[in-house]
Give the backbone structure.
Amino acid sequence: MKTFQSLSEIKSEIRAGKLTVLSLTQHYLKNINDKNGRLNAFLSVYADEALEHAKVVDEKIQNGLSGKLAGMIVGIKDVFAYENHRLQCASKILEDFQSQFTATCIQRLIDEDAIIIGHQNCDEFAMGSSNENSSFGICRNPVDETRVPGGSSGGSAAAVAADMCLLSIGSDTGGSVRQPAAFCGVIGLKPTYSRISRFGLAAYASSFDTVGILAKSIEDAALVMEVMSGPDEFDSTVSQNSVPKFSNFKSDKKYKIAYLKETLEHDGLDSAIKSQIWRTIHNLKSIGHIVEEVSMSHLEYVLPTYYVLTAAEASSNLSRYDGVRYGQRAEATELAEMYIKTRSEGFGDEVKRRIMTGTFVLSASYYDAYYTKAQKVRRIIREETDKVLEAYDFIISPTTPTTAFKIGELKDDPIQMYFEDLYTVQANVAGIPAISLPVGVDNTGLPIGVQVMAKSFNEEELLDISNQIITFKDQNR
Ligand code: GLN
């Protein structure tokens, strides 16, 4: 069977009688069967149930009763609750834990007849940039299996790139959807903070966590965001703004776009990525957009601000894994010992590092010096970013400073690993929507992503410019 690039391609083959949802599901299951042993993109595969569900969707299509996502086969990151299915957050501490309810964003997909094919590998509790922090083994990049797929939604990006599902749902706290998308050559969309309900998404850093989408086409990303967005009685932080029809994104509007001097001049930026971004800027100008250089003085503080605040929030969020309420419990003779053993044995090194850092920055003696200060810097960064976005429609930058690195290359160097998030964290610190688009490859064939950030709640124009960038690339191949 051919590799489908979008749901509309699938739907037209179904309409023409050339395809059924059942045969499509079998196709993806075969790919999973053939490739997962090597890639380890999926931690659980729901083969029987996906096939049963496919038959029901086929019947609904025949009777003219199918939902908007009939024919869409979706993989979900192992941080989303799905009733009566395992939810492990790629952590030993949650090994074999079963969800008792379904995340709102996942339920909305199912209600529109999407089929959930399995839970995907990721960094433990979504902390990492390479998928190497999973307790259930590394995931490999299908473009080059000696390299990481990125993280933390590494399995989700690898699965889309390797045609093991059409689309994946990931989470993006500091780049976890966009960075793996860039490393694997797919589209990664992070909507505005609060656009999509977080109910049923295992919390990492609640004031940053965003549900995101990994897809092969802008139209699929738009449609799925439309289905998942909007108010939810189970998440009081979700935006009450009405949800635009994101799927009507196409226009030939000309925009004003900024690029930040400091990002393109950064010493750590790979030269092939830099040239590719310049090419994209040049292409945008050639089709009539205005692209100008802007300077942002506080950019160097974005990464430390992100890591202080997310560690603080993580240390609090992860206190719930105590051996009593969820998952695994260590053998012990008294309560305190049980907590300590459960957490020491259950969490991996990176998660422990974050919990310890977070506890430190929240401790009485250091609270003002780190946590309060980082909150103030966050506000300044948000204001500076918003100011640029008042004068310009978008900010364009690389998604990542490097292309996919080798497995093991940065594993023992956390600072270098954090540096991979240099360009993605700004959107989370500011809460704005951002997307990574696959715009080219370097001379060894490794994918390069360009990132576009937009004003809060302006995903519609973000999708429009993304479509223009991708269309230009496809026409000039
Ligand atoms: N790599 C970043 C981190 O480790 C981002 C993770 C994410 O977005 N979930 O925190």
